[in-house]
Amino acid sequence: MRGMEVSAVEVRNVTKTYSLSQSQLGRLRHLFAPGKHQAARNRGNNLDALRDVSFSVARGAAFGIIGANGSGKSTLLQIIAGILKPTSGSVEVRGRLAALLELGSGFSPEFTGRENVYLNASLLGLTRQEIDDRFADIESFAGIGSFIGQPIRTYSTGMVLRLAFAVAAHVDAEILIVDEALAVGDIAFRQRCMRRIHDLRARGVTILFVSHETGDVKALCERCLWLRNGVVQQLGESDAVVARYLSATLQRTLQEEIAHGSTAPETPQPSIETAFQGHRYGDGRVTILDASLIGAAGQKAFLLKPHERVAVRFRFRVNAPLDSAIAGFLARNGKGETLFGTNTARENYPLAPMSPGDTHTVDFQWTVPELPAGPYFVSVGVADGDLEQYTMCDYMEDAIPLQAKAGARAVRGYFQLHCAGVDVHRNA
C-alpha cells in the first residue's frame, strides 16, 4: 500500500520441523511430504526447531534475536539467508544480503585467504573489478598479514572470523546478518567489528544481530525477538525484551538449583517497594529501596557536569542472609553502550555478611568526565558471590536517568581524555 513502510525482511508464520526418524523410509517421507508432519509437531519422531515465528524488519533498522542455546536462533537466520527452507510459512528478503553465520561458512579450506575473498565476495554479488577495488580494504580490516596467501585450513578460528567479517562488511550489503560469530574474536577485533556494524547501521544497512551479549543487543538494536524452544516469547523494544529474558533466565537458574538442592526453596521472591517503574530482576534476597546521583553539594543531581565530584547512592534492604554481598553500578549512554562501572569487589571493599532486616546505603564516588551531550542512565544492583560466580539479588536497570549538556568544545567518542602533559622533541 502507498505510504506504508517497506520491510527489508518479512517472516510470516515460519515453522521448521525436523524428522527424528531413524529409518531411511521415514526420512524420505519427510523430504517429499513435509506438510504432513506439521500436525505432529514435537510428537512422535518429529521436532520443531521453530514454530509459527513471525516478524518484520524495516529498511535501515537493527533487529536483535536473543535466546538460550538451542532456542532456534541460528535455524531462523539460516532460513532468512536462504540456506534452509522452512517446513511451512514464508520469508521475503528485499535487498542484497550478506550473512556471517557458522564460522568459515562459504570458505574453501584448501583455497588461500585471497582466493576465498574473491570466491565469497563474488557469491555475494560483486564483480571481479569491484572485488579488485575493495581487496586492499578487506585485507587491511582482516589484519592477518601474510596469512592472506595461505590456505584457510592453516588459520586459527580467530583468523577465519577476521577474514569472514572483513568480506561481509565490505560488499555493500543492504542487509547484514551476524550470528554470534564475534564471540570467538579477541577483544580488540570484536570492538572494531562492533564499530563497523554501528557505522553500517548509520549508513542505512539493515542489521539482523544474534548475540549472547545482551548489552550489545541493547546498544545496537531498537527492536528484539526472544526465542525459547523455537517459540516467540516476546517481540518489542530491546530494553523491555532483554530485561524479561534476563529475569526469566535467572528464575530458571534458581529453579534448577532448587531442584538439585543447592538453593533453599524458601528463597524470597522479588518484591518492588519503590516508585521505580523500569525493568528489574533478582532472586529477592535484597530489595533496592531507592537510587540517585548525589552532587557536590549533597543534593540529588540530574545533570552531569564535567569535573564535578558526584556519588551514585542507593539504599537496600536485606531479605535473606547474604554471606558475600557485592554492590555495584553501571553507567550507559543513550544508545545503551556501557561507559564505565564498578562494584565493591572490584574496588577491594569486601562487605561483611548481612542478615535479614538489615538496611544499607552505599556510595560510589567519582568525578564526571567531559561527555557528549545527551541522555545517560545508571543501573544499580546487589549480588551474592564473587567476581567469577555470583547470583543477582536485585538489579534495577537504568534506575537513575541523567542528562549531559554540550560543553565549550565537542567531545569525540565516549568521553574526553585529558593528557597529563604534551612533550615534543626534535630527534637528532
Describe the structure.
This protein is α/β, with parallel strands linked by helices and 428 residues long. The chain has 2 domains: 7-239, 3-Layer(aba) Sandwich (Rossmann fold), CATH 3.40.50.300; 273-404, Coagulation Factor XIII, Chain A, domain 1. The chain contains 8 helices and 19 strands. It has helices spanning 24-32, 73-80, 113-123, 128-142, 157-168, 187-202, 214-220, 238-259, and strands spanning 7-19, 46-58, 62-66, 88-93, 97-100, 175-179, 206-210, 223-228, 231-237, 280-281, 286-294, 300-301, 303-304, 309-318, 325-333, 338-343, 359-367, 374-385, 390-404. The chain has a 6-stranded mixed beta sheet, sandwiched between helices. Strands 10, 13, 15, 16, 18 and 19 form a 6-stranded mixed beta sheet that branches. A 4-stranded antiparallel beta sheet has the order 12-11-14-17, with no helix packed on it. Strand 18 and strand 19 form a beta hairpin. Helix 3 packs across helix 4, helix 3 (113-123) packs parallel to helix 5 (157-168) and helix 4 (128-142) crosses helix 5. It is globular, with a radius of gyration of 25 Å. 35% of the residues are buried. Residues 36-42 and 262-274 have low confidence and may be disordered.
Largest sheet: 6 strands, mixed
The low-pLDDT segments are 36-42, 262-274
For the terminal residues, how far apart are their CA atoms?
72 Å
The helix content, as a percent range, equals: 10-25%
- CATH topology of the largest domain, by name, is Rossmann fold
Tell me, what's the shape? globular
* Helix run count: 8
Give the tally of β-strands: 19
CATH top-level class of the largest domain: Alpha Beta
Order of helices and strands: EHEEHEEHHHEHEHEEHEEEEEEEEEE
Which architecture of the largest domain would the CATH scheme give at its second level?
Answer: 3-Layer(aba) Sandwich
Radius of gyration: 25 Å
Q: What structural category arises from helix and sheet content? A: alpha/beta
CATH homologous superfamily of the largest domain - what is it?
P-loop containing nucleotide triphosphate hydrolases
Q: Report the sheet-strand fraction.
A: 25-35%
Number of domains: 2
Question: Biggest sheet, strands in spatial order?
Answer: 5-6-7-3-8-9
